[in-house]
Amino acid sequence: MSIVKKTPTVWGQEPAVIAYVLNALLAFLVTIPALGLDETAAGYISTIGSGVLALIVAWQTRPWVISALTGSVSTILTGVSHFWLVLTPAQTAAFILLLSSVLGLVLRGHVSPKAGPVAPVVVVNRLS
């Protein structure tokens, strides 16, 4: 019997979930008044950050097309919430948090990490 170890990755074994949590955290951080960001700068930072995290998720998961499509929806809706909808900064952050939660949960069920299985794989060799 041999044990095949997991391939370590920068993002661990749940790159989609971690990236969507980071996206929600970014949406919260840009609303903090102490950072001194106006609404336009916060919108650019949040939208670009969402796009970068979407690219990382697409790169770290398979099939990448599903991750890229979900990431593009997230990035577009983040931009729409900042620049087109008339929302307060708190409402925008709440919308992005909800969006990140829903898309992260939906995406996780349809992709797998590029690095391999989540748990170690045990291979049993039978000698006949």
Quick structural overview:
By secondary structure, this protein is mainly alpha-helical. Helix content is 60%, strand content 8%. It starts with a strand and ends in a 5-residue tail after the last strand.
List the helices and strands and how they pair.
Elements: E1 2-4, H1 15-29, H2 39-60, E2 61-62, H3 64-83, H4 89-108, E3 112-113, E4 121-123
Antiparallel strand pairs: 1-4, 2-3
Structure description:
This protein has 128 residues and is mainly alpha-helical. It has one domain (2-123). It is built from four helices and four strands. It has helices at residues 15-29, 39-60, 64-83, 89-108; strands at 2-4, 61-62, 112-113, 121-123. The strands form two sheets. A two-stranded antiparallel sheet has the order 1-4. Helix 1 (15-29) runs antiparallel to helix 2, helix 1 (15-29) packs antiparallel against helix 4 and helix 2 runs antiparallel to helix 3 (64-83). The protein starts with a strand and ends in a 5-residue tail after the last strand. 28% of the residues are buried. The mean pLDDT is 82.
Distance between the termini: 14 Å
The amount of beta strand, in percent, is 5-15%
Shape call: elongated
Structural class category: mainly alpha
Whole-angstrom Rg:
18 Å
Name the descriptors.
128 residues; transmembrane; membrane; 4 strands; mainly alpha; transmembrane helix; two-stranded antiparallel sheet
